[in-house]
Amino acid sequence: EGARPFDLARGPLLRAHLLRLADDDHALLLTMHHIVSDGWSMGVLGREMVALYDSFSRGEASPFEELAVQYGDYARWQRGWLQGEVLERQLAYWRGQLVGAPPMLELPTDRPRPPVQTYHGASHAVEFSAELTSGLRALARSEGATMFMTLLAGFQALLSRYTHQQDVVVGVDVANRTRLETEGLIGFFVNMLVLRTDLSGSPTFRELLGRVREVTLGAYAHQDVPFEKLVEELQPVRDLSRTPLFQVVFGLQNARREQLQLEGLELGASHAEGQIAKFDLTLNVVDRGEGLTVSLEYNTDLFDASTAARMLGHLERLLQAAAGDPSRLVAQLPLLPEAERRLLLEEFNATGAEFAEAARPIHELFERQAALTPDAVAVVSEAGRLSYAELNRRANKLARHLRRLGVGPETLVGVLLERAAGAIVGLLGILKAGAGYVPLDPAYPQQRLAFMLEDAGAHLLLTEQRLLGLLPGRAARVVCVDRDWERIEREDGANPGYETRPESTAYIIYTSGSTGIPKGVMIEHRSLVNFTLAATAAYGLRPSDRLLQFSSLSFDTAAEEIFTCLTVGATLVLRTAEVSYSVDALLEKCREHEVTVLDLPTAYWHELTWELSSWNLSLPATVRLVIVGGERALPERLSMWRRSAGGDVRLMNSYGPTETTVAATVSDLTARGDEEKVSLGEVPIGRPLANVKAYVLDSNVLPVPVGVAGELYVGGAALARGYLRRPGLTAERFTPDPFSAEAGARLYRTGDVVRLAGGELEYLGRTDAQVKVRGYRIELGEVESALREQEGVREAVVIAREDEAGDKRLVAYVVTGGDDAGGDGGAEGGTPARWRSTLRERLPDYMVPSAFVVMESLPLTPSGKLDRRALPAPEWGAGRVAEG
Ligand code: AMP
Ligand code: MG
User: Fold this and answer.
1) Ligand 1 in contact with 601 (CB < 6 A)?
2) Is the pLDDT of residue 8 over 60?
3) Residue 711 pairs with which residues in a beta bridge?
4) In 3D, which of 709, 749, 863, 707 has the Cα closest to residue 165?
5) Of 164-168, 400-404, 658-662, 791-795, which range is least confident?
6) pTM across the whole model
7) Average pLDDT, the chain
8) What DSSP designation does 351 have?
9) To 10 degrees, what angle do helices 421-432 and 362-372 make?
10) What's the 383 CA to ligand 2 centre distance in angstroms?
11) DSSP readout, 141-171?
12) Tens digit of pLDDT for each residue in 660-689?
């Protein structure tokens, strides 16, 4: 009955039905449209019905006199009164109050917001104890505020914590019966007021309450402007997915609803639970004197029941703390009930695992495997196969040779080698010599390679003859795996057994640096060993696997491929050296070598999925596991994968910055029939690997609730030692772990924004200007600073944006000129072609912008900051760089 619509054009807008349940038991259903009634009207209606029933049942006439005014009179009066100066004064208040208000409250929803708002709803209620209630009453009294203001302050504080917004807008309704004549009328008098509270400047709860008090009093003093008039006046951006001006509502009622009495009848109200939510969230509090009944009505297309229940728990916890000590900072008020805190900090991170080999260096794990399966094939390359025994023998010889040249513990060796068996021998040889390796990509410009060798203070460079030209006269000492092999071959092939400690450096990998200089991440054996054993278990790798080595050696994914494979007794299949790798070539390789495991950059997997699906192809049947990682996986690509290409191939999403040793978390994305994971929106990145910890924290380093976005901090065995020779930067990114009892435990601040949803982490974005373009990690600041050093460049901004094909590419916005600028608009030599070619001498190809836009000046926001959104789309040239 309640769901049946009214015909607004024809009416009636009130329906009554009497249901006979038994001779002496009836239910009267009264259904009315809000346009003719409101909460106050219900009281009037109830009282008048009782009086009329009394009179009529006694055969008497109506006891009421004709009303002096009707709703229509009120409407006419309002229209006449509320105009000109009166209206203008009120509107001026609201314009001032709402200028620059955020268009929306970005609530963390459980599901993606439907493009058109739905009104499916439910509600959840809790009781606040008498103790908390009296605490809140006392707080209100001592601050000269009302219960309404106190609860609203708590609610707005909660919303701010959920959204990380400091400008929080909530709607409230007022009865609007400010004149005696209207008190007895039935009709739509209620009005919605927009209460906007500023939570910036890290206020205490007391300060916040003061602000809410001012806002509320101001709003009440200007409550006569009907909400629809305000919307008309302010012209907020139209968005069908949400209500304008506010999406969240708060209300407080006193419980003294009079008990209706009818002679000869027993009367009771039965509340019809509406399955409707007019707003995203509506918090309704009923003050029963002793305690408070607090109910949250929520849109069920956005929120789960469990989320609504948790929200009320957070509100209660926050109010308790605020009532206990209003001088606490709002940003630091605790939200989490004990059980949720334990879940987030402990249960989610109960990853402890004892690995017997944890304290051994990584190459000893390989040696143990070589002793177990000496004849198994370790490496397959264009040049043929290498057995475990042979690979081990060669690496041992190289290790001894390097030792003679002074390589040993805590020395570093640069590795400039193409993907070939020699490179695998090289890495193992360096590790066995007790040193760490620094991979150098032959595709990088000379300047960058020279910088890395120099910065690392590499003792020696391991390369091959034909690559020597890439580094003329730079490295102190060079060993060529080909040219010098005859000499190396004469060494003893037995395991050398040089001592390597768990905390010795295994490798250093350089990543883009925001200040313009790449930084070297130092990974120790213990982290690499923990990762290798944890990943092998998580992926379920086995000796029968043949894994395609896909990644360039200069990314840590290569370490994942090589060490998981060679410590479990599986076979590493090396792909050819060419830079771009077509899907055809990949499939051919998989077929030829009966590859079982692929470890692909997410960007490549996107392409693979698209191609397989478009051409109706499938992976060779031998492929049983695909691991992806490196950047946000597209949900629509995952659906595509599941529908076609993927079939029953197992799919894992691995996440991790270089600083946390390849991967910190893993999610199994294999379809489970329910498809739930995709409909949730983002593709999950999973849970922490063995002995790794993952915390989602806010800017006060406090854990955020389930579902709420925060920065991901990673701890445990995964952490790098730090950045090579950058103690300041190391201290900034590796901070003390406040949740660990272990002395000296640290957390790495990833800069990634994530949230916990459905028991797994979800990747949402970055806190900074780091981007991924086709899987490559790029600090925009590094590109900008290289660009600013170019001739004729006065100011430069670089962003990543999608081109017409939907691929992400770098675009540089350049303001040219200087004092010497001629009349022709740009300084000598300052052309995009010149910039591009000089940048290529210094940056890897993937960091060179694909398009340049020369501008007179950069667009600024009203507050004088760069307005990134106003940067125009470029003319996309043909500058697409090759896949790596
Ligand atoms: P890198 O150090 O090159 O491995 O880059 C690490 C960064 O890549 C992370 O901090 C994330 O921003 C991003 N990333 C890595 N793996 C994933 C993933 N599976 N999903 C989303 N982003 C990822
Ligand atoms: Mg990574």
Assistant:
1) no
2) yes
3) 697, 753
4) 709
5) 791-795
6) 0.91
7) 92
8) -
9) 120
10) 29
11) HHTT--HHHHHHHHHHHHHHHHH--SEEEEE
12) 999 999 999 987 665 554 455 899 999 999
- How many alpha carbons fall within 13 Å on the CB side of residue 682? 23
- Round to whole Å and give the CA distance between 263 and 230: 47
* Rounded alpha-carbon distances, angstroms, from residue 874 to 301, 733, 830: 38, 35, 18
Instruction: Specify the range with the lowest mean pLDDT, choosing from 62-71, 200-209, 650-659.
Output: 62-71
Q: Which of 519, 604, 632, 653 for a ligand 1 pocket mutation test, highest count of atoms within 8 Å of Cβ?
A: 632
In DSSP notation, 647-698 reads TT-EEEEEE--GGGSS-SEEEE----SS-HHHHTSSPEEEEEPTTEEEEEE-
Q: Residue holding tokens 């930067």? A: 729
ω into 12 cis (within 30 of 0)? yes
Q: Which of the residue ranges 266-275, 471-480, 704-713 has the most confident prediction, judged by mean pLDDT? A: 704-713
Helices and strands counted in the chain (H then E): 23, 34
Confidence of residue 432 (pLDDT cuts 50, 70, 90): very high
Report CA(824)–ligand 2 centroid distance (Å).
Answer: 46
In order of 527, 597, 710, 777, the CA distances from 766 in angstroms are: 25, 30, 10, 12
* Other beta carbons less than 10 A from residue 732's beta carbon: 11
Helix (H) or strand (E) holding 627: strand 625-629
Per-residue b/e over 274-299, b at no fewer than 16 CB within 10 Å?
A: eebbebbbbbbbbbbeebbebbbbbb
> How far is the CA of 385 from the CAs of 59, 126, 368, 422, 429, in angstroms?
107, 68, 20, 12, 18
Measuring CA to CA, how many Å separate 34 from each of 5, 39, 572? 12, 9, 70
Residue 580 in this model has a pLDDT that exceeds 80: no
Radius of gyration of the chain (CA): 34
> Could you read off the pLDDT of 534-575 as tens digits, one per residue?
999 999 999 999 999 999 999 999 999 999 999 999 999 998
Element (H, E) at 30: strand 25-32
Q: Which residues sit opposite 836 in a β-bridge? A: none
CB of 763 closer than 6 A to ligand 1? yes
**Pocket residue to mutate for ligand 1, from 652, 749, 752, 755, most atoms within 8 A of Cβ:** 752
Q: Is 511 in the pocket of ligand 1 (CB under 6 A)?
A: yes
In order, the DSSP letters of 101-133 are --S------SSPPPSS---BEEEEEEEE-HHHH
What are the CA-CA distances from residue 720 to residues 475, 500, 694, 759 (Å)? Answer: 26, 17, 15, 26
3-class state of residue 8 by DSSP: coil
Give residue 770 CA to ligand 2 midpoint distance, Å. Answer: 13
In this predicted structure, what is the pLDDT of residue 473? 63
Which ligand is nearest to the Cα of residue 767, counting in written order? 1
Q: Nearest residue CA, atom 9 of ligand 1?
A: 657
Q: Please provide the distance, in angstroms rounded to a whole number, between the alpha carbons at the two ends of the chain.
A: 63
The finding on whether 657 has its CB within 6 A of some atom of ligand 1 is yes
- d(C-alpha 628, C-alpha 583), whole Å: 15
User: Per residue in 333-367, pLDDT tens?
Assistant: 999 999 999 999 999 999 999 999 999 999 999 99
Whether residue 391 is predicted with pLDDT greater than 70 in this model: the reply is yes
Taking CA atoms only, the protein residue closest to ligand 1 atom 3 is: 777
| Residue-wise pLDDT tens digits, 827-869 | 455 788 899 999 999 999 999 999 999 998 999 877 778 888 8
The pLDDT > 90 percentage for the chain reads 78
Closest listed residue to residue 684, CA positions, set 640, 608, 633: 633
Q: Where do the H-state alpha helices sit in 794-840?
A: 832-840
pLDDT tens column, 48-80: 999 999 999 999 999 999 888 999 999 999 889
Burial of 396 (0-12, 13-18, 19+ CB in 10 A): buried
CB count in 10 Å sphere of residue 21: 8
Q: Is the CB of 685 under 6 A from ligand 1?
A: yes
